[in-house]
Write a structure and sequence with these properties.
This protein has no helices and eleven strands. With 113 residues, the protein is mainly β. Bound molecules: FE2/S2 (inorganic) cluster (FES).
């Protein structure tokens, strides 16, 4: 069962930018890629807690502001070290100018231990 919740207005996040948003108790990094695609991943870097929603977005990859690790905005996979473990990624949709994230079903569960 999907559980989309509104996290932002579409015009709050221009293409090429990320933003910290909240969905219930979850803190997320919401991003709007240059090609118009939206994505949302966990806001906390798995390396050392950097705030991904305060990082930079380029080609749908988020660069952590602390040590430059990179994550794929759409899958949560690591694209550049030092992080080793992925973050969760969540489905995003835009409905009548509202950006919604389904935090009930991560597209990729974190696989540790
Ligand atoms: S805390 Fe994100 S790369 Fe180190």
């Amino acid at each position: 069962m999907s559980s989309f919740v509104v996290v932002a207005r579409e015009d709050e996040v221009p293409r090429g930018e990320v933003k910290v948003v909240h969905a219930g108790t979850k803190s997320l990094c919401l991003g709007h890629c240059e090609d118009g695609t939206w994505g949302a991943i966990d806001n906390v870097c798995t390396h050392d807690g950097g705030v991904l929603g305060e990082g930079e977005l380029s080609e749908c990859q988020v660069e952590c502001p602390r040590h430059g690790g990179q994550f794929d905005l759409l899958t949560g996979e690591v694209r550049a070290l030092p992080p080793v473990y992925p973050v969760n990624a969540y489905p995003v949709r835009v409905v009548e100018g509202r950006v919604e994230v389904d935090v009930g079903v991560p597209t990729k569960e974190l696989e540790i231990g």
